[in-house]
Amino acid sequence: MKTAVPLYQHLKGEILRDIQAGRWRPGDQIPSETELAQEMGVSRITVRQAIADLVSLGYLAKRQGKGTFLLPRNESLTASKLRGFAEELRARGWPVKMDVRGVRMMTTYPQLVADQLRIRPPAQVIQIRRIAWVEHQPVFRETSYLIPPPKVALDELQQHMDVYNHIYGFFEQHGVRISFGSQQISATRSVYEDMVELGIRSDEPILMIRRVTSDQTGTPVEFSEVRYASSRYQFEVSLVRE
Hints:
α1 crosses α3 (44-56) and α2 crosses α3. Helices cover 29% and strands 29% of the residues. A hairpin with a 3-residue loop joins β1 (60-63) and β2. A six-stranded antiparallel β-sheet has the order 3-4-5-8-7-6. A two-stranded antiparallel ribbon has the order 1-2. It is α+β, with helices and mostly antiparallel strands. The chain has eight helices and eight strands; from the N terminus they run αααββαβαββααβαββ.
């Protein structure tokens, strides 16, 4: 059940650990691709992939003709505290009850899932379907796809479905350290499943959030699509002018 992790993801984790350990200071130039390849015993292509990911995550910046530099904290990507969707509601003081509708192992899944998790069939994923209730009213429905942690048996999980009340906690209990995530928010039309499971009208719009959560090496471990009834939820962001 263990999914092979690409070599460049391992390398990215090593570079991240060096950054966090203070090997370089903000503004410092890091070693070249050739130097890192020799130091780590990998190819330049592997180094290039790892560096490209760290640039996209806001840790590093490439400067034409000069090299790659460690970004100061105030120049990195803007980030907010990473919480689960249910955790976010609870942080607002809402009494949330999670209703797990299904857990199954899959080896075939939508192309979007494969792309977001950077896998291909027949790599296995766990699909979880949940509905969040607040005061006897459904607020969102969620479909998540998880890379199975090592040594996790599906039959055991199906007997203890309460572990999915806190998906990030589930990962951490099995030795997977959740580090960061990225998400896209959009408005979309309701579909039949929204009307049935959220109890809304066919003309009510849906607030949809798609999120990819990664471990400390930058390897995606979860892709979720969460669909909120727009009449029951508002997305709030605090803004500060510098």
